[in-house]
Amino acid sequence: MLEELVTAGVAVGCAGLVYLMAAARVIKQYERGVVLRLGRLASEVRPPGFTMIIPAVDRLRKVNMQIVTMPVPAQEGITRDNVTVRVDAVVYFKVVDAADAVIRVEDYRFAVSQMAQTSLRSIIGKSELDDLLSNREKLNQGLELMMDSPAIGWGVTVDRVEIKDVSLPETMKRSMARQAEATRDRRARVINADAELQASKKLAEAAAAMSDQPAALQLRLLQTVVAVAAEKNSTLVLPFPVELLRFLERSGLQAQAQTAQTEAEQRRRAESDGAGAQGAGADDGPRTPDADGGPRTPDAGGVDDIGDIDGVADLGRVSDLDRVSDVDRDADVDRVPGAEEALDTQEAPDGHNAGRGAERG
C-alpha cells in the first residue's frame, strides 16, 4: 500500500513537473507576449518576465518592441522634371501595440518594407531633381508622413525615414559638373572685376597724389628698380623718362605744322604767278582807237582809261586769290594740331604777317 502511494506521488510529481515545463514561459525585457487561447486573443498582453500558459490551449507569440532598422531597396523612377534617378533609403520603426501587430497584419515587417518602397517611388515622381539633391530633409518628412498614416493601424509607428543615396546617370553628372564649373567661373570673374575696380580707384588716388609732387614718381621708379634687382635673375631694367616721350610728341607736332606752312606758301605762290600771267595777257590785247581814228597811246605820266580799268581788275583778282590762299592756309593749319601756334611763333619774328599783304600787292 505504501509503495503504491509513493509510486502515485512520484507520478503526480513528474506530471506536475512536465506541466510546469510545458506551461512556463520567459518574456524578455524588450518583448511583449500575446496569448491566443483557443484561437482567441486573451484579455491582456503579457509583460516581460516569467509567465504561465495552458499547454495545448494557449499559444504565446512574442513581439519585439525595439526600434527596427530596415533598409529600403533602391527604387528607380522619373522625377517631375523628367530625370531618371535611382534612390535608396532606410526606415526606422517600432511596434507600439503588440496585439495589433499580431492581429491586424500578417507580417508587419514585410508590410512596412513594401509600404516604404511604394512611398519612395511616389515621392520620387512628385519631386524635382534639385529637391532630391539639396532638400532631402523635406522629402524625409514627407516619406515619414506617407508611411506613418497606415502603419498606425498595424500597431507600428515610423520613427524616421532617411534617403541614403541618389544615383544619377553619367550624362547628367557631366552636365551638372559643367554647370557648377560655369557658376564658379562666373563668380571668379566677378570677384576679379571687383578687385580691378578697387585697384583702379587706389591707383587713381596714388596718381593724383604723385602729380602734386613730381619727385614722388621718381622715387617710385627707383623703388621698382630695387624690387626687380633684389631677385637673382638676368632681367635688365632701363628706366625711360616720360618727359622724353612728351618732347618727341611736341617735336612731331611742330614738324607737321612746318610742313603745312610750306605747302600753303607753295600754293599761294603758284596762285600769284598764275594771276600775274593772266594780267600780262590782258595788257597785250588790242587797244581802243582815239576819236580821230588813230591808236591811243598812254601819256608819260599815267595810264589810259582802259589800262586803269585793267589794273583795277588785276588788283581785284589778285586780292581774291590772296583771300583764297589765306582760307586754304587756315584750313591746313586747322587740320594739323598745334600748327597754328608753331606758325605764329615762326612768322612773328621776321614780320612776315605784317608784310604779307604788301608782298601780295
Topology (SSEs and partners):
Blueprint lengths: L1 H22 E4 L3 E7 L2 E2 L7 E4 L5 E7 L3 E11 L5 E12 L2 H6 L4 H19 L2 H6 L1 H16 L4 E12 L2 H43 L1 H17 L11 H42 L21 H31 L3 H9 L8 H5 L1
Antiparallel strand pairs: 1-4, 2-3, 2-5, 6-7, 7-8
Helix pairs in contact: 3-5, 8-9, 8-10
Features:
Tetrahydropterin Synthase, Chain A; 4 domains; disordered C terminus; three-stranded antiparallel sheet; alpha+beta; 361 residues; 16% strand; rod-shaped; 8 strands
What is the C-level CATH assignment of the largest domain?
Alpha Beta
Give the low-confidence spans.
285-321, 327-361
CATH topology of the largest domain: Tetrahydropterin Synthase, Chain A
Mean pLDDT across every amino acid position: 76
Helix content: 55-70%
Main sheet?
3 strands, antiparallel
User: In percent, how much strand structure appears in the residues?
Assistant: 15-25%
Q: Provide the structure class.
A: alpha+beta
User: What would the principal axes of the Cα set say about the shape?
Assistant: rod-shaped
What is the CA–CA distance across the termini? 184 Å
- The beta-strand count equals 8
Q: Please identify, by name, the CATH architecture of the largest domain.
A: 2-Layer Sandwich
Tally of alpha and pi helices: 11
CATH superfamily of the largest domain: Band 7 domain
| Neighbour order of strands in the largest sheet | 3-2-5
Q: What's the helix-strand series? A: HEEEEEEEHHHHEHHHHHH
Using the CA coordinates, give the radius of gyration.
59 Å
Number of domains: 4
